[in-house]
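Try this one yourself first.
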């Protein structure tokens, strides 16, 4: 298995996975992409990898991705899927959030309570509320339901997990 952090804008990126596969066919390949990279579905398909993550993902999801790829499955970070589906205006809005605001917005949009988020991130509940207030203001949202709707796509029945299994 190979885990590589790279810039999708680099023209040699797409050819990298084929060169790696040529050296060993059964190799599991996971690419870690920069969160500010802009990519489309064709670029993702051209990568021909088994796992895709955004840089900065938690260790837990990295391990989950590695385990899925080791088991012969495909794994993609849900944030990459969201970026592919999200309109450019939504991407511009989301890019105004700080890293911590983005992290808290993601956890809230998946249905976690402030207290649980505070415990997971080792911060006070008041800190979570403060970040959430900033998220609502920056994205012009009325509350948790709107945040989940924006984060997981218009028409989503319920918030998803932090990844999408492709198998």
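Now uncover the answer:
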């Amino acid at each position: 298995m190979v885990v590589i952090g790279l810039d999708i804008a680099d023209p040699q990126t797409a050819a990298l996975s084929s060169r790696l596969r040529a050296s060993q066919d059964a190799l599991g390949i996971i690419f870690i992409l920069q969160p500010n990279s802009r990519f489309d579905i064709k670029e993702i398909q051209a990568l021909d990898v088994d796992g895709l993550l955004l840089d900065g993902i938690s260790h837990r999801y990295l391990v989950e991705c590695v385990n899925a790829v080791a088991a012969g499955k495909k794994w993609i970070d849900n944030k990459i899927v969201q970026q592919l589906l999200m309109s450019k205006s939504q991407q511009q809005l989301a890019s105004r959030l700080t890293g911590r605001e983005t992290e808290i917005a993601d956890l809230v949009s998946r249905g976690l309570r402030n207290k649980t988020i505070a415990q997971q991130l080792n911060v006070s509940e008041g800190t979570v509320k403060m970040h959430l207030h900033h998220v609502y203001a920056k994205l012009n949202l009325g509350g948790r339901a709107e945040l989940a709707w924006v984060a997981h796509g218009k028409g989503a029945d319920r918030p998803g997990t932090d990844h999408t299994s492709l198998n």
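Discussion: The first helix runs from residue 13 to 23. The first strand starts at residue 2 and ends at 6.
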